[in-house]
Amino acid sequence: MELFLEKKKFFSQNKKIFLIMMLSILMLMCFLLPYIQIIINKDNFCVTGLDILAGSKLGLADAGDGACIYFPNIMRISVLLGVLSPLIGVLFILLKKHVLAAGSFIVGAITPIFSLLTVSDLKRQIVELNISSNRVYIGFIWPFFLILIFGLTSAVFSVWLNGGEKLAEAVFFCFALVSVGLVLLITLYMIISGLPAIIEVGVFNFLFGSEWNPSCGKYGILYLILASLLGTFGAVIVGVPVGVLTAVFLAEISSKKVAVIVRSIVELLAGIPSVIYGFFGMMIIVPFIRNVFYGIRTLSQRPVVGDSLLAVILVLAIMVLPTIISTAETSIRAIPKSYKEASLGLGATRIQTIFKVTLPAAKSGILSGIVLGVGRAIGETMAVIMVAGNIVNFPELLGSVRLLTTGIAIDMAYSSGLFRQCLFGIGLVLFIFIMIVNISFMKISKRGVQIDATNR
After folding, report:
1. How far is the C-alpha of 156 from the C-alpha of 175, rounded, in Å?
2. DSSP characters over 330-365
3. Do the beta carbons of residue 319 and residue 395 sit within 8 Å?
4. Residue 129 and residue 53 in contact, taking contact as beta carbons nearer than 8 Å
5. Which of 51, 53, 307, 347 is packed most tightly, with the most Cβ within 10 A?
6. What is the pLDDT of residues 169-178, one digit of tens each?
7. CA–CA dist 147, 24 (Å, integer)
8. Residue 39, phi then psi, degrees to nearest 5
9. Cβ contacts of residue 382 below 8 Å, gap of 6+?
């Protein structure tokens, strides 16, 4: 009986290995099939992985003799990795290194995705050829998706060779890997798309240039950066006191019935679309600023029209309230009752206890809410674009401004060439700001956990 079970298990293992080898062959065959389609006017080019490896360029008849587009190095490297990964995976299977084989198959599965990072570069090359075209399309067809499916399936079978428990662990790990991979993919895409333009314009000229005029080749984004930072800082200055005090009211002062009502309204604020905030700002805040400051001119001697940095600050302050309130309230409620009882027992009043004991103890959670609010404010686009005025000026409180996010949204539709690449450069700068905010949030949270553990 034991001999029969061993034979059955061996046969099952051989089946899995056979399926892995078949899937590997299918993966390799997909690279020999057209999986990238480029359409320019009536010309239809179907590019295979072999074409990309064999030649570095693709000739275009419509643009005249000698006109061509070059396959970016990332595309060629991704194809090479995609071809080698299944072969390496099979080798690891034969060596009984099943986990390494699974990793190799996963690499082979995702390598075509890196070709997606090169689409903007291919389109830029086509635009620079000045082809009179009414149709330019770059897409990926079915072999592209089959590579992904075959690779992931091979990885699953490879881990399965080690048993069912390992398979379950591998599935969980793969889902975690997807999240990490998406972040890395976005990061890599932003660097590839934005960094060349920043280098071409000059890092100093791009970041500290005060003139944004693409028609004249001026790509300085200093005023956009200042407007974004001042708008976010102003929103925090206005929104944090309101948010924290509201959280204190909900957690410490209000009755349960009132707290339920106020909390429901705060949650409703969190669910309102950005465009509704923009409508509110455009119809209420902007006319209010225009009427209050009627006849006053800015430092640059422009009349106050309402669309201004102040309107941006007020709209963003309202938008960050739900994040700050909910995070701060949760932190305040998490403070042990013994802290408050000790303070009250020493003769402190209820208000003194709140400001001297509760809020300092909940400091890390409140700071986390503020950091999250900053991330929401600095990345907001739709509401801001409706109240900012969208003119590239030195940021003044009552003057029209353009922020980093609005600059991308306004110009992306009709940009091309270096202009379009510079918009990706703005996106890269904004992405770095957001990453700094997120890293700060993680540091603050970690520090808060350490402090709480020490206090306890």
Report:
1. 12
2. HHHHTS-HHHHHHHHHTT--HHHHIIIIIHHHTHHH
3. no
4. no
5. 307
6. 766 776 676 6
7. 9
8. -115, 125
9. 273, 274, 275, 278
Burial 310-333 (b: 16+ CB within 10 A, else e): bbbbbbbbbbbbbbbbbbbbbbbe
Q: What is the pLDDT of residues 299-308, one digit of tens each?
A: 777 788 888 8
Whether the per-residue pLDDT at 4 is higher than 60: the answer is no
Return the pLDDT at 166. Answer: 65
Token pair for 434: 């957001």
Q: What share of the chain is helix, strand, coil (3-state, %, to 5)?
A: 75, 5, 20
> What tokens does 298 get?
């800015």
Q: Which residues pair with 361 in a beta bridge?
A: none
Burial 31-65 (b: 16+ CB within 10 A, else e): bebbbbebebeeeebebbbebbbeeeebebeebee
Q: Give the domains, in start order, of the chain with CATH numbers.
A: 2-195 (1.20.140), 212-455 (1.10.3720.10)
Amino acid 316: pLDDT: 92
DSSP states along 381-408: -HHHHTTSB-------TTS-B--HHHHH
Cα–Cα distance measured from residue 75 to residue 118, given in angstroms and rounded to the nearest whole number: 7
- With tokens 């790990």, the residue in question is 173
Q: How many C-beta atoms surround the C-beta of residue 221 within 10 A?
A: 28
> CB 186: neighbour CB atoms within 10 A?
11
Cα–Cα distances in Å, from 58 out to 63, 69, 117, 119, 121? 12, 5, 18, 14, 14
Weakest mean pLDDT among 119-123, 348-352, 408-412: 119-123
Report the C-alpha gap between 379 and 60 in whole angstroms. Answer: 40
Residue reference for tokens 């590579």: 147
Nearest CA-CA partner of 117 in 192, 182, 49? 192
Cα 198 to its chain centre, rounded Å, is: 20
pLDDT at position 65 over 60 = no
Q: Which residues pair with 40 in a beta bridge?
A: 43, 136
* Alpha carbon distance 192, 186 (integer Å): 10
Q: d(Cα 107, Cα 77) in Å, to the nearest integer?
A: 12
Q: pLDDT tens digits for 367-423?
A: 888 888 888 888 888 889 989 888 888 888 888 888 888 888 888 777 777 888 888
pLDDT at 314: 92
pLDDT digit string (tens) for 196-241? 888 888 888 888 888 888 888 888 888 999 999 999 999 999 999 9
